[in-house]
Amino acid sequence: MLMACSDTSIIVPDNAQSKGPHVSGTGVVKASPDIIRASIGVQTFNEDAETAVAINNEKVNAIFFVFG
User: I need a surface site. Which of 9, 40, 44, 50 has the fewest CB within 10 A?
Assistant: First the structure.
């Protein structure tokens, strides 16, 4: 759950508070995030390129399995 709060205070002299209306408030926003951006890299070093690609593919598939 993502929560955001904002609270702003303004200090004014005592004699200024009696002039006009006084308003104060607090706000809370609760929302579930709907977007996530992630960058994940996989590196495999092997003398044989085809073997390196196969190992990389296994690693990438394991990552996708974890994150669904």
Answer: 9
* pTM, to two decimals: 0.44
Supply the Cα-derived Rg of the chain in whole angstroms. 27
- Cα 49 to Cα 5, 43, 58: the distances in Å are 52, 12, 14
Q: Is the dihedral of CA 16, 20, 21, 26 positive or negative?
A: negative
User: Residue 57 belongs to what domain range?
Assistant: 2-17+25-33+40-67
Following DSSP, what letter does each residue of 31-61 receive, concatenated? E---------------SSHHHHHHHHHHHHH
Residue 33 has pLDDT above 60, yes or no: yes
Give the CA distances from residue 24 to residues 8, 19, 65, in Å, rounded to whole numbers and listed in that order: 9, 15, 49
